[in-house]
Amino acid sequence: MSRLSASPFVTSILAGRVALVTGGGSGIGFEVARQLGLHGAKIIIMGRRKSFLEKAVGLLAQEAVQATWVQGDVRQSEDADKAVEKAVHDFGSLSILVNAAAGNFLVAGEDLSTKGFRTVMEIDTVGSFNMSRAAFKALKVAAEGGLIINISATLHYGATWYQTHASAAKAAVDSLTRSLGLEWGSFGIRVVGIAPGPIADTPGMAKLAPADDSSAVDELVAEMIPLGRMGTKTDIALAAVFLCSSAGGFITGETLVVDGGHWLFKPQMLPRELVSDMSRRVESKSRAMTPSNGLSANAETISRPSSRL
Ligand code: HXC
């Protein structure tokens, strides 16, 4: 199987672009870095753990992706500046920033310490802001325009159990996407988001649905996804390639949900084969109603003009 067999895009679509991917040492961040690289971009990945970064760059090199790494913590603005400087120094420019670094753990709200809440807010939200601000000057002179992709989530569409911190952080990330999309469009910088649903084989899933048998978890989760399967890291990474390409060139301030319809999920109230029959029976009953047999006392009260008026 070709390394790009899953991609509908030509391999040179991102040639000449330079992408800095935070959290690029593992999980979704790595796969986004990989796919951008396989489509021609030069890659710099940033993360806290040197061993992960070295291994990731080694894997990218095996696929002929030109890549380097920088160790740093997105919570520290000086680390953000250093990463952008390295990208420009090593590759001559920076055109794409992917904010994929994130933190999360399951915890009931009443057990979440202030430090735990703050830590996730700082990695996800402050980190995305630090990186975006640090990249601004380089992105605004990028030849094909600058782009920021914030990896978000759907946790805060409605609400999600035991992730108060991550839900608040990702809601704020979506707000950053819109605000910076508004403010930086005139500088030729697009700011977009991708909100993944449950993605198989990621550190995030391992933390949120811990189990000895991950395929059993995948099956269970897939039942809550209208498209009937867990997402893959490639689903997310190819969405990123699309947003980086000229096909996404008029999109800014928007977060693309890539979740197979997961956040829309509601339990099926009635088996599909019973809907039509039941609905018609109810309908004919309702049409057979007369004021004497169909209107409730309450309805009559409401429809009767008030004597006090
Ligand atoms: C309760 C916890 C906890 C847990 C940490 N804390 N884990 N509280 N339950 N399981 C608390 C600590 O007790 C501490 O508060 C505070 O959080 C900070 O913890 P530290 O270990 O000091 O922080 P740090 O070393 O910076 O680690 C940050 C981290 C860690 C978020 C806790 O897990 C991390 O670095 N994660 C990065 C990788 C990751 O999580 N990837 C998955 C992302 S998935 P106190 O008060 O006790 O000192 C993702 C997807 C979202 O984002 C959407 C999914 C659909």
Termini Cα gap: 79 Å
Helix content: 40-55%
Approximately what portion of the residues adopt beta-strand conformation?
5-15%
Bound molecules: hexanoyl-coenzyme A
Which structural class do you get from the secondary structure elements? alpha/beta
Spatial strand arrangement across the major sheet: 3-2-1-4-5-6-7
Overview of this structure, please?
- There is one protein chain.
- The chain has 309 residues and is of the alpha/beta class.
- It has 2 domains: 18-264, Rossmann fold; 272-303, no CATH class.
- It has 11 helices and 7 strands.
- The chain has helices spanning 27-38, 50-62, 77-91, 114-140, 164-184, 203-208, 214-222, 233-244, 272-287, 291-294, 297-303, and strands spanning 18-22, 42-47, 67-71, 96-99, 146-151, 189-196, 255-258.
- The chain has a 7-stranded parallel sheet, sandwiched between helices.
- Helix 4 (114-140) runs parallel beside helix 5.
- The longest helix is centred in the middle third of the chain and has 27 residues, at 114-140.
- The chain is elongated.
- The termini are far apart.
- It binds hexanoyl-coenzyme A (HXC).
- The site of hexanoyl-coenzyme A has 16 residues, from helix 4 and helix 6.
- GO terms for molecular function: 2,4-dienoyl-CoA reductase (NADPH) activity.
- This is 2,4-dienoyl-CoA reductase [(3E)-enoyl-CoA-producing].
- Its EC number is 1.3.1.124.
- InterPro entries: DECR2-like, NAD(P)-bd_dom_sf, SDR_fam.
- Residues 281-309 are annotated as: Disordered.
